[in-house]
Hints:
By secondary structure, the chain is an alpha/beta fold.
Amino acid sequence: MSFDYISRREFLKFSLATSFAGIEDLAFAQSPKKSIGVLAAPQMLHPFIVVFLRGGADGLAILSPLNDENFIAARPPEMRFAIDASGGKVESENAIFYWHPEASPLASLFADRKLIVWNAIGIKDETRSHFEAQEMMERGVNSLNSLPDDLGWMARQVISKTRFQANSIPLFAGNNNLPRSMQGAHRAIAVKDIQGGIALPNGANGFNALSALCNADGNAIASTWIRDHLSNLDFINQTLGKGAGKVIPYESSGKIPYPNADPGVGLRSVARLIDANVSLQYAWVDQSGWDTHENQPGRLNGHIKNLSNSLAAFAQDMEEKNQPYTLVVMTEFGRRLRSNRSNGTDHGHGSLGLIMGSNVPGGQLLGQWPGLSAGSLDRGVDLAVTTDYQHFLNQAFKYQKS
């Protein structure tokens, strides 16, 4: 079919797929099905934010059991840090853990009772595949063998539990691409950096052309959907620009600046939307690069530093603005206990989770520590998972208080 004979509706679909790719999910919403073993979240009283460490973060490097003889035997000195160089320690009944030197902001949040640490979380499935593990966690399921629908778990909650007025942004990802957790909901927007606002598809001319096509097409599903989306994009820009047309850069109320790196840029965008009161329910921000098969010590220094400073900046910003929120940090799986020959670690099982927020009773170390003895390890090589990620998230949901 030549372009001259494309119908208006077909053109709208083509325009949507080409102009909005990377900004919003292209699938139409569907009705979710109830199913056993599927994550079910409540309607949020304030924003719930996930910071996802993509690639499989080595929780044993972020918070290390440096005195454990099994840990010492499994990792050479260059894969460990000295106790006197650590950012602080966390004690439990059967183990002492030390924060990575670059994680001192996390140690401070924990000491100030603003952060919960949760050991040995993950999926109970035995896969070590990034794709499969991330798919399970973003779909909110325990297995990929029997799926209730095509929705991500955040999309499922918004579709099933809430009805939003026009110009509300229930789902936002501070990423360049929409995460799987939000796919299936048309009220989802993914833009990593909104300091300069949101660039409209093909500029003002493209925006006006699509708007005119939608109006001409009446109440067709695609037209209604695109018109709603265009309205939200314009609403965000008008809100961020205080109605003056020019977007004003966001300024944190905290003293700690947001790093100009992941996940700081995305969290700054989330903070800006929270401050703008756009009815945000769920937010998702990725920090990639945690697949440390080689040269792990040097690579983790930067990742942990950016993560720690980003979380500290966000916590301080929200506290100064008196904005309620709940935020969790998790990853698809941990790394192998024993390091490989490239000063890295291969795909493992259990890892570390963090929870912080305005109603979070911080300063706690939760979760059952399984130990690192040969008999305690999963498959004899990995930190075992003692808390399923769904239980971890369900606990975080309980801190949703007005």
